[in-house]
Amino acid sequence: MSDASSEKAPAAASFWRDPEKRAWLFQVLVVAVVLALFGYIFQNTLHNLEKRGISTGFAFLNNEAGFGVLMSLIPYDETYTFGRTFLVGLLNTLLVSAIGIVFATLFGFIIGVARLSSNWIISRLAALYIEIFRNLPLLLQILFWYFAILPLLPHPRQSIELGEAVFLNKRGMYLPAPITESGFGWVLAALGVAIVASVFIARWARHRQDTTGQTFPVFWTSLGLIVFLPWLAFGITGFPLSWEYPELRGFNFRGGITVIPELFALALALSIYTAAYIAEIVRSGIQSVSHGQTEAAYALGLKPGQTLRLVIIPQAMRVIIPQLTSQYLNLTKNSSLAPAIGYPDLVALFAGTTLNQTGQAVEIIGITMGVYLTISLSISAFMNWYNKRMALVER
Amino acid sequence: MSEGKTDYIPGQYPDLPPPITEVGVVGWLRQNLFSNWWNTGLTFLGLYLVYLIFVPLIQWAIIDADWVGDSREACTSGGACWVFIRVRLDQFLYGFYPVGEQWRVNMTGLLLAATIAWLTVPKIPGKRYAGLFALVIFPVIAYLLLSGGSFGLEPVETTLWGGLMLTLILALVGIVAAFPLGILLALGRRSKMPIVRALSVAFIELWRGVPLITVLFMSSVMLPLFLPEGVNFDKLLRALIGIVLFQSAYIAEVVRSGLQAIPKGQYEAADALGLSYWKKMGLIILPQALKLVIPGIVNTFNELFKDTTLVMIIGLLDLLAIIKAALEDPNWLGYSIEGYTFAGLVFWLFCFGMSRYSMAIERKLHTGHKR
Question: Chain B contacts of A139, Cβ < 8 Å?
């Protein structure tokens, strides 16, 4: 026992001094607090629901809704169920988001490039656009278009026309509707074949370039295939597509596709607002590619077009795409401002009307939040995958 | 050394001025507006756009506008009717706050302006105390002043609050109360404890994944169900709870980006000095990280300021909502453009100012110690 003091392991730290044990104790405490909070909320909710005579559960989704909606992409009337109402709202949300994304991208890229223009006036105008629309609340913009500008449009009889096919007036926008006849499936099939063929051609061309160094005009060949094959099928099957034009009958237009003013105003405001953000993203993306890259590409003998296509755009896209995706996500979430002007989206129809009719607050808000959460989590999963694929491989 | 060629001696002739087409106004115009036919075309397109937008706008908003009067009869010239804004201005600023008590709102506003100046103007010393004052003392004073009920002040129900005052309250309380929660969440997300990290990630992703409007719906219809019987929060408090939860997730992400930007050596040095976790964070890491994320926080605040307008959908009368309500007054029908333009102008001034401030700070903080 003489050398006990030297052999003895350093005295085990007391329970309170051991960081690992302390961490576990702390975590157990956190879990206990969170569980207690949830339990408390759960108890209160059950008690409150019981007192108000609201039964919990999702059975209400099978009940008859008993109210109509302004606009629906699928057959719907008062006799359908609340479950159907949910679906109508979801589809309307997806519709306005899709329209918004297309136009926001279009405007955003145009304005972003204009912002970088060497022309002073164009670049100032683009900057003005960005600073104005980015610094105004989206809700204000939606209300402005819907309540201040749309009422200034003419009555149906004096509609603004575009080639006797597109009409714009107080009651909305009217577009010609395509009507497909038998045989149109062949056109779609031809389009599919063309796309698949283009993919194979691209692979083959890359392989040939890797082995022999010869290049092949992939882009023009693919474009030719994708345009030509469907047209060929279209001609052979005897042009199985006609257009139904909107017509003025009585006080309003009939036929064609009707874009209700609510959808028009919401999609317009969403596109204009998000375009300002996208323009900034495009500008910063293009500016993030240093000038040395262009010079290096020229030094290697690439032509200006090739430099843009093979050197600048791929690198700018690495910066642009993640931010662009998050703007698309924001746009989808922002489409939930629809109740302010009465566009029947998921929030207005389900978290608004259905909630008022059934009183199933917990279930309905839960489902609504779940839908948006699913959309945003899947988009961020895609983004992580993309970032991993596109990440710079460094030494 | 062929002498014949060097008959020019520098300075022998006066320097010629640069060609007039390359410098000054003409040179600038040639370079920026008319460098080639494509650029010239764009210039004319741009000028045409300016003509198309600004001439009618100035005509409507200034030249043809009516400024004085007290009813819609004063608006006869066909331009903008700013009389509407003048008549309703009181309501737009204070909501339905009693006229006799409005000095309290003004006092709070002045105090707020002074606090913000103290915080943001670099020349005024004592930033640390300014932060403490803004985060702790000012909210207490503001609450006592605005809601009254003590120090002989008349109590004013929150249902009477509205207009720009309510907008500012929602945004400021949202950011100030969400700030500590956001920092805790960011620390939780960077923590080595798996359960704490998982809970923080779940909380942050939940709020960031849903739109604010569903959060407001939740706090207005679900929160009353969560509380025990007899406890009832007023509408404003419920909206604030929703905003704070939502906002804390965004602040957490901003703060996390700052924590990630601090080099690992700082953490290791703090550990080597034997500092405890909270001392390490509070004395070494957070002061540096928070300085880095000031622009990010200002941007978040900017977004929140715009998002406060959504409270209209759950029935609170913020600036936008009260203007919308005023537009439905039968005496003033048809002045939507004026109303929304005024709202837009107010929001724009705040947001643009904030975004400029954040850019300036960013430039100032970009001191080049990055790689």
Answer: 309-310, 312, 320
